[in-house]
Amino acid sequence: MKILFRPLLCTLIAVAAGCATPSHTSTNTASSAPSAPKAATIKAAPAPLLLISIDGYRTDYLSRGLSPTLQSLADHGVHATDGMQPSFPSLTFPNHYTIVTGLRPDHHGIVNNTMSDPVLGKFSLGNRDAVSNGRWWSEGTPLWETVQKNGMTSATMFWPGSEADIHGEHPRFWKPYDGNVTATERVDQVLSWLDLPVAERPKFITLYFDEVDHAGHDFGPDSPQVNEAISHTDAALARLVDGLKKRGLLDRINMIVLADHGMAPAPSRNVVVVDKLIPIKHVDVVATGVLAGFNPKPGYDFARIEASLEKPQKHMTCWDKTRVPERFAYGSNPRVPQLLCLADVGWRISTSDYLAKKKKQSQGDHGYDNQAPQMQALFIAHGPAFREGAQVPSFPNVDVYPLMTHLLDVPAAQNDGDYNAVKDMLKPDAQ
Ligand code: AMP
Ligand code: ZN
Ligand code: ZN
Prior knowledge:
Layout: E1 4-5, E2 49-54, H1 68-75, E3 78-80, H2 92-101, H3 105-108, E4 115-117, E5 121-123, H4 128-131, H5 134-137, H6 143-149, E6 154-157, E7 173-174, H7 183-194, E8 204-209, H8 211-219, H9 224-246, E9 254-258, E10 264-265, E11 271-273, E12 283-287, E13 291-296, H10 302-309, E14 316-320, E15 339-343, E16 348-350, H11 352-357, E17 364-365, E18 379-382, E19 390-392, H12 400-408, H13 419-422
Parallel strand pairs: 2-8, 2-9, 3-19, 6-7, 6-8, 11-16
Antiparallel strand pairs: 1-19, 3-18, 4-5, 9-18, 10-17, 12-13, 13-15, 14-15
The structure holds adenosine monophosphate and zinc ion (2 copies).
One zinc ion binds next to loops.
């Protein structure tokens, strides 16, 4: 990884996340050892790691000048200036689980926000039973589980998967997802976890914001509403940074701020109505939207339907799951439907039935080709382990996991990431 450095003068830094702040109320456990063992035998306790996701924060949103706190973290830390590449499909649940497992969706089993499993039945974001059933998630080992198996505590202020008992384990502190919990309340919860007595204080914490994604869907990425959501989320981050500073923690906590994917303009009228192309009653429709999925229905000729959809189509491309282009790393998992149709950027795939019932208009979407510029996600990192003012090239989001296991000094579960590809983000003594 090639890194560019921007020289910075700490004295000129105006925004909150600044250079080393003298800490008067240190809560860092690393410095509290009563007597000093020989230097060679000391293994310092890792700094806490705070993983923050701003759902749908496209990498170029930063240049709108509406995120002073994020910009300051980037200026004093590491910034992937061209963004971080999501895994395919560029959807929320698959990518959030990729980030905490290092596995591609095809390997961790959360292959879509909406899916079907021969044993477990149907999965969708609004289905609380499914979302909190660990059997959907058990093909991956989330970082919070590994952290706890290594004697440390995890806490999740929302994260897909965190509501489920995975391999019999939850994060020690977790919250059932509730979109009505305000950004400020989420931040305050994280700060209060950091105020816990050392023995209970989490070493790995997640924090999740969803306003930017909602506004992106409802009004499109170029709307004033998205700009408002960007500003509002940045204000919550300013509150977080301020709280960390007051606790003397800002330069003692490693922070990764990222997004799961970007957002493309996708007006509701840009829709491929799939039942105009095939007899829809002859297939089982598993998912519609940007990535549609179909399974065979007994008694019907699926091969014929496949042959017809795999021909060149306007505004979408279809493949049998065994023929998905290799770069998507997608199709081997039994939960991936047999036939997939991926919409061109800016388009969606639907059925007449669904369109007749749908009331809400939508102006933006994601889930597209993970190489599309509009899908590239924010990545910023800041803290004692990270270089200051470093700009790094784009990298795939599977690499975040080995970076995090390194930071927390825990063994990595089997994963698709590459620590060597991201280790230069770290100061030499932290590599
Ligand atoms: P999508 O844009 O369809 O990929 O889904 C993103 C939406 O999922 C977010 O805007 C949230 O409203 C919702 N969401 C995020 N986390 C959770 C969760 N843990 N459980 C249910 N829904 C969630
Ligand atoms: Zn998302
Ligand atoms: Zn979304």
